[in-house]
Write a structure and sequence with these properties.
By secondary structure, this protein is α/β, with parallel strands linked by helices. The chain folds into two domains: 251 residues, no CATH class; 149 residues, Rossmann fold, CATH 3.40.50. It has 22 helices and 13 strands. The strands form three sheets. Strands 2, 3, 4, 5, 6 and 7 form a six-stranded parallel sheet that branches. Helix 17 links the parallel strand 9 and strand 10. Helix 10 packs across helix 19.
Length: 517
């Protein structure tokens, strides 16, 4: 910045002194005017800054590609019969004993899908112990701050009825055990609390360590309980019971299903141009829409929130300021104890340990053959960077929708600000889509991959390691990228994979919960 001075010899010396002092203090008083535009302090970094596309050459080629009628592509062809069917009723299942050993309480942390798996495990442990299960208590997630209970999310009467021949379940404890609460266990060491259940504990561990507590006190409370039951070396009837809970007993409450059905219907039968301009186009009648040919749609689960971005320790294009800001966030939330932080971005991407950004998942979908005519439903809570990050994805897929665009504020009133209920709606829509794809591994990805495998539905599982390596290659052409993506995803569209030891039964339900047809 250049200042021009003019000589005024007739002005008093005092005036010159004041002017000189002002010039000296000006940079101090307004430092932002004298700071290079390329520098950003981590304290002033905002995740809402517009980030330039990191794969501009690929993006331009994808946008220049000719649109085709995606519905004529084999992309939309449903999965062929793979020779497996659901198999949940074991001939060896013992009948429910007339008397129980006592009441079993579990306290579940995590988000919707981690808690969902914990509920399934709780039913299985109750069966192993011949205990009466109290409807599980869902802890408030420290990140999402959602206090929704089991009964706020799931149809409790349906849950109890489906499992009535397998496990005794009660909605609440009888008065004689009303003292057994979360607050009671938070204030002191209690004989009825089991707080050291190992991760993936065996059935024998519960018989040896929890059964005696039930028999002595009539009640046992396990906290924490997430991931506390092994996936291996369990009787077939216990494995099938876990799947029965997951795929049959856990259904969402009516208002979540109703909103999910409305969203699915609006994706299948989008309003016409004249209707879309109307202020109440969301209320177009079913009869009018049903005259249209139903359209196909993809559900994209975009797990790209600040927690995911920070925990991954990957570079997302925001420069040094963003790296420092995310490192500070990691220190605040996890005390810096993040395994990935010891690796470079290149190492993490080569190993497939970085979540795909909205830009990258958009390029993947475009390379697979989806185009601007594809209807895309964005299942996500809070995207790190907001609309600034999503804009590239929206440019590739202008028909992208979400809960807010498809449902009125009145329809969303009961789920507003409640992360578990918002996720439940996304789960429901994901189970009714033609194709599901997730931008990163995680509990929602695992839960829907397993559920859709159980129902033989097409699900794209991104090859994270391959994509990480492709995106590191700044010289790759669009043709080379498309060919590599196509080859790397030939058997990742929902083809059934048998569960291996230590793998989750909720992600790989065969062969434990599925039989050869």
């Amino acid at each position: 910045m250049r200042f021009h001075y003019q000589s005024h010899y007739h002005q008093p010396l005092k005036g010159e002194a004041i002017a000189g002092l002002f010039l000296l203090l000006f940079p101090v008083l307004l430092p932002c005017l004298f700071t290079p535009f390329t520098y950003a302090s981590p304290s002033t970094f905002s995740e809402w800054n517009v980030i330039k596309p990191r794969h501009l050459s690929l993006l331009r080629s994808a946008l220049e590609g000719k649109s085709s009628n995606g519905e004529q592509s084999d992309l939309w062809t449903p999965l062929a019969d793979q020779g497996w069917r659901p198999c949940l009723e074991s001939v060896n299942t013992p009948s429910l004993p007339q008397t129980s050993e006592g009441y079993l309480q579990v306290f579940l942390d995590g988000g919707l899908n981690q808690q969902r798996m914990g509920i399934c495990d709780a039913v299985a442990v109750a069966k192993i112990l011949n205990a009466t299960l109290v409807i599980p208590y869902l802890e408030v997630n420290p990140v999402w701050q959602d206090s929704s209970s089991f009964m706020d999310i799931y149809d409790v009467d349906h849950f109890i009825n489906v499992l009535k021949d397998d496990v005794s379940i009660v909605k609440e404890l009888p008065d004689e055990f009303s003292w057994s609460t979360r607050e009671y266990y938070a204030t002191a060491i209690r004989a009825t609390r089991i707080k050291r259940a190992p991760v993936h504990a065996s059935a024998n561990w519960y018989l040896e360590n929890v059964l005696s507590v039930l028999q002595s006190y009539g009640i046992a409370a396990i906290s924490p309980f997430s991931h506390r039951l092994s996936f291996d070396n369990l009787p077939s009837e216990i494995q099938q019971l876990r799947c029965k809970v997951n795929f049959k007993a856990l259904v969402f409450v009516p208002h979540i299903k109703a909103l999910g059905d409305a969203i699915v219907h609006r994706l299948r039968y989008p309003p016409g141009e004249t209707e879309a301009l109307s202020s109440d186009y969301l209320r177009v009648t079913t009869d009018q829409n049903d005259k249209q040919r139903p359209q196909k749609f993809v559900v994209l689960h975009l797990r790209f929130d600040k927690d995911m971005a920070a925990h991954s320790a990957c570079d997302f294009g925001g420069g040094k300021a963003e790296k420092l800001a995310l490192a500070k966030y990691r220190q605040t939330i996890w005390g810096g104890r993040v395994l990935n932080s010891q690796f470079t971005d290149e190492e993490l991407r080569s190993q497939g340990r970085c979540p795909l950004t909205p830009e990258e998942i958009g390029l993947l979908l475009a390379a697979l053959g989806f185009d601007s005519s594809t209807r895309l439903y964005l299942a996500s809570h809070k995207v790190y960077g907001g609309e600034a990050r999503i804009s590239t994805l929206r440019e590739l897929f202008p028909l992208m929708e979400n809960k807010k665009s498809l449902a009125s504020s009145e329809e969303r009133a009961r789920i507003k600000g409640k992360a578990s209920l918002l996720a439940a709606v996304d789960y429901y829509v994901g189970m009714h889509s033609d194709i599901f794809v997730s931008a990163s591994l995680g509990n929602m990805h695992n839960a829907l991959v397993g559920h859709r495998t159980f129902e033989n539905m097409k699900t794209i599982r991104p090859n994270m390691a391959l994509l990480g390596q492709l995106f590191l290659n700044k010289n790759i052409t669009w043709l080379e990228f498309r060919q590599a993506v196509a080859e790397g995803h030939q058997n990742r569209e929902g083809q059934l994979k048998l569960r291996k030891p230590k793998q989750s039964i909720y992600t790989y339900p065969a062969p434990d919960c599925m039989c050869r047809a």
